[in-house]
Specification:
The complex is a heterodimer of chains A (230) and B (263). With 230 residues, chain A is mostly helical. Chain A has ten helices and no strands. The longest helix of chain A is centred in the middle third of the chain and has 32 residues. Chain A starts with a helix and ends with a helix. Chain B contains eight helices and ten strands. In chain B, the strands form two sheets. Chain B has a seven-stranded mixed β-sheet, sandwiched between helices. Classes of the chains: A mainly alpha (230), B alpha/beta (263). Chains A and B meet through α2, α9 and α10 of A and α3, α5 and α6 of B.
Chain lengths: 230, 263
């Protein structure tokens, strides 16, 4: 009521004001009413399902164990496995092994990123390079990295060099293909907008191309990491 | 009537001052020996003038804008934008989704070479206020409605500080009410900024609602078929009788132009 009378006396009838009000009204009506989900809710939504899933698997395991279908040495109960894991960790058997694996994986992955990213950029942006080695990369990408183990063993023997070779051959194609498909997915309109805004050469890559290609690149990195790890 | 119908209406109006855009004998062919998309276009746009380019599909409207924006080069003739460059807006807002509304505008300032972070922030806020989106700095493009996105895009174009604004069917994808409001908004900003606007559309009413001059292009190849100077005073409305009457006349010419291709 008070607002009504105030409106009647305020210079609401000016054309600019009227336009501002219509615009504000449209904006309000077209903006979704969905309340922003609270942080606690979002965390809960991402944390609870995995916990429930793990609990369910443990429960099924326990039930199978209790049913005594297989002897203990074939299917030990969750409790027994947990105890022996705890022992292995506490007497220091596990840490060096885990560290060793992670170290090799991380170094190999880092090298793969350093090689795969520029390679993918070259394949994605330069037509001749793409025609030349694009199909090869796709082929290599679908090869399981275990396939590299025998030749790598023959060349390097059971050394770190052999491990890194396997990791590189597995991860580099995935990362390069990720960069390539990320670049392919960049809408041409973005590049035109970037050019019109004044982005040329390096600034175009930095401000438009790379952020636009990022989702594909991350997918490639993820797959590359999976290969490096295996 | 309110409009004079002449084919060479420009001459008197624009030779006085340097034009904001000058096209002389512009032709465009995309492949050697291919059909011409544009042919012999002579067109001057005066500083601060609002020109609507109207035509059916295949008249090369978008190609013409790309030439003026410098995204493409003409095959014949010359395209001259004495003030340097022209800002370009599309049917889609084409905001970068990895940036917020404010950061999108900020990027235009940055690429213009403005380095002071605080000055840029103030300028972005000023531009957001100008399109009446104050407080939307941190909104992501997907959180905004189509009309709001187009206003952010408009603010981003203004951030380029060009003297010429090129618009390629910028409101074609919006609903009628939003479009009507944005028409009003655009005319207000045009009057406030003194920009020369080249507005491409296939909507005759929209062209007459907005422009000081409507240029009808023929199709395949695109040529200037006819021009109308529109003296209906702003603020106009799309429902105005004067707008409707002239739209009928222009539509008749457009239809004639299109049916040439059906024979």
């Amino acid at each position: 009521m008070a607002a009504d009378t105030a409106d009647a006396t305020s210079p609401d009838t000016e054309p600019g004001d009227a336009l501002a009000h219509i615009e504000a009204g449209l904006d309000a009506l077209e903006t979704s009413l969905e309340p922003a989900t609270g942080r606690l809710r979002r965390v809960a939504a991402s944390v609870i399902p995995p916990i429930v899933a793990v609990a369910l698997i443990l429960a099924v395991w326990q039930v199978l164990y209790a049913a005594k279908i297989w002897p203990d040495w074939k299917l030990p109960g969750p409790g027994q496995v947990f105890t022996s894991l705890k022992e292995a960790f506490s007497n220091g058997d596990v840490w060096p092994a885990v560290g060793h694996s992670i170290g090799h994986g991380a170094i190999g992955f880092g090298a793969s990123v350093a090689i795969g990213t520029p390679l993918g950029l070259a394949v994605g942006r330069i037509k001749a390079v793409r025609a030349g080695i694009g199909p090869m990369l796709s082929g290599l990408q679908s090869l399981p990295s275990v396939a590299w183990v025998p030749p790598a063993l023959m060349f390097f023997g059971p050394t770190s060099a052999m491990l890194y070779t396997v990791v590189l051959f597995g991860a580099v194609p995935s990362i390069a293909v990720g960069v390539m498909s990320g670049l392919d997915q960049v809408p041409p309109l973005y590049l035109r907008v970037g050019r019109n805004l004044g982005a040329r050469g390096l600034s175009s890559i930095r401000y438009v191309l790379l952020p636009a290609a990022l989702p594909g690149y991350l997918a490639g990195l993820r797959q590359g990491w999976a290969f490096a790890w295996r | 009537m309110t409009a004079t119908v002449e084919t060479a209406v420009t001459a008197a109006a624009t030779t006085a001052a340097d034009p904001a855009v000058r096209l002389s004998g512009v032709g465009k062919t995309f492949r050697d020996g291919g059909a011409a998309v544009l042919d012999g276009i002579d067109l001057d746009v005066a500083p601060g003038e609002f020109v609507c380019l109207l035509g059916a599909s295949g008249c090369g409207k978008s190609t013409l804008l790309n030439l003026v924006a410098g995204l493409d080069a003409p095959s014949q003739g010359s395209v001259d934008v004495p003030s340097g460059r022209a800002a370009l807006m599309f049917q889609e807002a084409a905001l970068f989704p990895w940036l917020t509304a404010g950061e999108n505008i900020d990027l235009a300032l940055r690429l213009r070479g403005l380095s002071g972070r605080r000055e840029r922030r103030a300028e972005v806020e000023r531009l957001l206020d100008l399109v009446r989106l104050g407080g939307a700095y941190d909104k992501r493009p997907h959180q905004l409605s189509g009309g709001m996105r187009q206003r952010v895009a408009l603010a981003r174009s203004l951030a380029q500080d060009a003297k010429v604004l090129l618009m390629d069917e910028p409101f074609a994808a919006l609903d009628a009410i939003t479009r009507d409001v944005l028409h009003e908004e655009l005319v207000r900003l045009w009057e406030a900024t003194g920009l020369a606007v080249v507005f491409v559309t296939h909507n005759v009413r929209e062209a007459v609602r907005l422009g000081q001059r409507v240029v009808l292009l023929s199709s395949r190849p695109g040529r200037v078929a006819r021009q109308w100077r529109i003296d209906i005073p702003q603020p106009r409305r799309i429902e105005d009788k004067a707008v409707a009457d002239l739209s009928v006349e222009i539509t008749d010419h457009l239809r004639k132009e299109i049916s040439r291709h059906g024979r």
